[in-house]
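Async update (no meeting this week)

Hi team, since we skipped the sync, here's where things stand on the single-chain job. The sequence we agreed to prioritize is pasted below, unchanged from the tracker. I ran it this morning and attached the output directly underneath so nobody has to dig for it. Comments welcome in thread, and please keep replies under the output.
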Amino acid sequence: MTTRESRTAPPGTAADGDGGRVAVGAAGVTVTAATMLTNALAYLVPMLGARRLDPADLGALATVLALGAIAAVPGFGLQLAVAVHRARHGPTPTGRLALLTAGVTAGVTVAAAPLLSVLLRLPVALTLLLAATTFATVLAGRWLGELQGDQRFLRLSAGMTVLALGRYGGLIAGLALGGNAVTALLLATVTGLLALPLLARLAHSARPGPPAAPDRGLRPTHVMTTCAATLAMLTISYADLILARQLLPVDGSGAYAVGSVLTKGALWAPQVVTLLALPHLARGDRRARALGLAVILACGAALVAAASVGGELAFRLAGGADYLHLAGKAPLFAATGALYAVVFMLVNDRVASGARFPAAPLWVAAAGLAGAALLVAPRTVEGVLTCALGTAALTAAVMAWLVLRPGDPSRRP
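Output:
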């Protein structure tokens, strides 16, 4: 039986899958390994697509994956809400709320399919299959949140691995076998749904403690707040790729899709820090916040430096020799992702601490990015990239001021 003590490990330790203790370093290694596998599979999809598909199909697939990442963010929001609640109050029933969140998200995706197909020049079949894969990804957030909130990072890493294989395994298999984007996404739908019972069994084996008191239960408003924040985070970080698809010619859209691999690498590489810190942020641990920010900044600086030195190698690995003309832009793509990694950490801190409207600055920034790209920037890869980098830098500065200023009036008591 899980005890309250196993959910509130002291600094330097984390609760393992059986209620014992594991060092934060060991927990970090396991979660980092799962994150690296997830990222590797995610990067393999556009890399394989760049070699198997023509530029038009590659741009379409990259756009669908970007839309999928945005459509799936309620799953991350659900995971965040469950994790924060469990870190503060202990377990609570979440099954109905999780099904409602996944069902509504998939339904909205289906309703938007015709409009997305027209505006982004996508086959309707791709957008409809996107709804099915979205349902599986969102529902998985329930079980990952339970494991994260209890600091059961060994089981959480296993769950992340299962979800990654389900989410990307079908895509990779479809492309490797020579299928088109529709075939690959169909296989991804099958593997994503097959991953759900495995996740449920993994979370059930954790044997959580008694449910929280009724007046402390997780409510839909909690999930709505975290979903809105998570949606804002991924919307702004993927908005440049979607704008590139809309504004640039086919070849330019495909080239930007390859460059965005570097952006996402710099964005997601340090996210394990935020994941491990979240339960501590929910309990107001400022030391954890400061340490997490320091690690993320150092990681971002290292990745930008590496992109400056090895830009040609980075683009050769990401898309092949056809995209080496963009090698000089590698540091800019990496810097954009590194800045958004800081933004993600700061937004998670505001959500975990109960701030009101934690995502408002991000929605303003996303609107500004769209306006600048549509009205001011040249219709080139460089024009869209400059807008994205400027927006990331300004957003990070605003979020840092909101989080670090003393006596933040937006925080709930």
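Quick observations from my side:
Residues 16-404 form one domain.
The beta strands are 13-15, 21-23.
Reply here if anything looks off.
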